[in-house]
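Bug #2210: token dump truncated for Phosphogluconate dehydratase?
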Amino acid sequence: MTVDPRIAAVTARIVERSKPSRETYLAHLSEMATKGPFRSTLSCGNLAHGFAACSPSDKADLAGDVVPNLGIITSYNDMLSAHQPFETYPELIRKAARDAGGVAQVAGGVPAMCDGVTQGQPGMELSLFSRDVIAMSAAVGLSHNMFDAAVYLGVCDKIVPGLLIAALTFGHLPAVFIPAGPMTTGLSNDEKVRIRQLYAEGKVGRAELLEAESQSYHGPGTCTFYGTANSNQMLMEIMGLHLPGSSFINPGTPLREALTTEAVKRALSITALGNEFTPVGEMIDERSVVNGVVGLHATGGSTNHTLHLVAMARAAGIRLTWEDISELSDAVPLLARVYPNGPADVNHFNAAGGLGFMIDQLLSAGLLHEDVRTVWGKGLSSYAVEAKLGDNGSVVREPISKASGDPKVVTTADKPFQPNGGLKMLTGNLGKGVIKISAVKPERYVVEAPARVFHTQAELQDAFKAGTLTGDFVAVVRFQGPKANGMPELHKLTPPLGVLQDRGQKVALVTDGRMSGASGKVPAAIHVTPEAKDGGPIGRIRDGDMIRVDAVSGSLEVLIDADEFAEREPAAADLSHNEWGIGRELFARFRDTAGTADEGASALY
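Reproduced locally. Full output below:
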């Protein structure tokens, strides 16, 4: 299959830029690969500790060097719907491993927090940095060096990126990611948003709001809108880390269990003890990363991945930039309408053909690299399938239909919903930022209006309640970057700004904070860097300055005299309230050492 020249050019640029770091990374993997099968390097005392709690048969298997041992890294907790299904996975995985002639052990657990629970709360300021904690936690589990491969149980926002950073850090081991799937469809997304906006206007009370939210988020599984969690699942499949067709199968179904069992057997078959050794650090290369970005654009995915993909790629020695992501957006059409880009949820998306259909269309248009390595052992065309349950309870895969099951939800590459992807980089005298345009109406791609400046999202909400947000304006919410307060998501801004936009006002948002995968109909220049805490230009904006957010030309400007703007003293903010409470004291070093948003906002690099 011929790759579109624009895709090929970006890929070649990433390869060239990454050569020094990628070569060093692969050299490290090569050195590690000479030191396994990994538990054979342990002393007898080491090994005895490692299998002391195992059954006699597992001890006997682990005492030798011919039976593969599978490490399980789990993000299970029973408070979060997306991760609750993982409670029963370890026993299922252990049984599947034994049936396949191997052993499986839970190597460690990682924290899993939910941005949906912490929205607008102090705990949200730990969220982004939890990605780095997850990577380190997984590394602790795998550091025992008992394992020939690892499976990773994770779904949501920071969990999968953190797990992949860990997997690539242990890139000499094969890695298979095992999803839990989305919850079944509840209250429609349009109705949920309607109730939220009515609540913001004071037209319904908390009881009505809670009832609507409870009908939306009602059972085990991932939230069904296309936010970061479901973008994660798309990425793991299109990058070849899931088994084909496995991302969006509901929890608690026979097919979900069959896919999990199959993933375990596949993980055991690709260890160094077999004939298909597939270390994940070699498997994931620049082409895999580009495929992930293409999938993100084609599905209108989460803006959080302008942070996460950069950080994940870096863990493999690959240097991805926002410029790469933006250039790919210009080459990739939008092929999915899943909320917030449309009324459908991920269950509708999957029923309409889902990711298999999308991969087939993108491959046909030359927009993906087909010749990548995957955990399935074949190129990416093997993912253009639909997974079903066979008569004997195993998984069968059928070629995907060439016709969309619902053209309003997924479309063909020759009839896209829009000619470019969901994410775009903005640059100008305010620095760099990103904007998600897939859910924004074209007439709102450009907003030029006076600034209204706030230092917290609570200040903007208070102004909305007081009725002072009149006329057209650009809300500037600053001191929300990684160094200031951990870069929380600012979704409490969405309902009031959405209400004002519906009233006919021209509004936009400019912030050094995040809005994530649920970024919706209000044009929002987010992740602005340098952040205000780092002396970025966003800190010199004053009320009334004319701001231009232009998603067509890709510019982000304050329209005042350049010399006058440069001479201004940056605003100061009292950030002491970000430094304590709900564990924030423990994350001071993360805030101090955090990188910039365009470098992944990580404290690890």
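Output looks complete on our side. The chain has two domains: 14-184+219-399, 423-599. Marking as cannot-reproduce; reopen if the truncation happens again.
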